[in-house]
Amino acid sequence: MAFPHAGGSATYWFPLSERLTPDIETLAVQYPGRQDRRAEEPLRSIPELADRAAEALLARDDRPLALFGHSLGSVLSFEVARRLQAAGRTPVWLFASGYPAPSRLRGGDVHLRGDEGIIEELRTVGGTDPVWLENAEFMESVLPALRADYTAIETHERGDGVLDCPLTMLTGDDDPHTTVEEAKAWGEHTTAAFDLRVLPGGHFYLDQHLPEISALIAASLKGITG
């Protein structure tokens, strides 16, 4: 199960799912307030998002499940994993990407900025085609979901929860949102094996490293999923 970044949608994970198929089925979360769920009110709380995602996953069959989250999605996937573990369905692996550990969250003020301030943040971190950032009609349609996502992650409290599954943390070596020390701290959140991978790039380093990332996921889950 893949969890997008702030402002992201399920379709962001399509290139990764193409590389993992047919050995690994990729399910992607679609947060309320975007694409086919645009008519729904965006959620402004990581716990509420996690509750809903965990409920949906627990209603599925009991095949082995691994979670992958980038940026906001990394913290959200961790919270979902905690809920699954409490229900007796601990994921087989958690892959976190591009954000400080839950015990090192920085907060932030992007959600308090005006529309132009949020757009400027998108320019800074990358991951959005500049053409769309200059499209006023498009940005007007996505800003409510963006503000909700930033509210959710920037107001989420630090936590010290621990999982019993292996945890791999990936980050870019030039990510303004995550230092190497903040990435290493993810190791405090598992009783099982921990692996840190630092790759060249910024916040959206993974766009340039899909072959390595998909190979890492496939190797980690070989013999576990199915």
UniProtKB/TrEMBL annotation:
InterPro entries in the record: AB_hydrolase_fold, TEII, Thioesterase
Lineage top rank: taxon: Bacteria
Gene3D superfamilies assigned to the protein according to its UniProt record, in alphabetical order: alpha/beta hydrolase
Signal peptide residue numbers: none
Domain Thioesterase per the UniProt entry, residue ranges: 2-219
Pfam families: Thioesterase
Family note: Belongs to the thioesterase family.
PANTHER family: S-ACYL FATTY ACID SYNTHASE THIOESTERASE, MEDIUM CHAIN (PTHR11487:SF0), THIOESTERASE (PTHR11487)
Protein name per UniProt: Thioesterase II family protein
Lineage, highest ranks first: Bacteria, Bacillati, Actinomycetota, Actinomycetes, Kitasatosporales
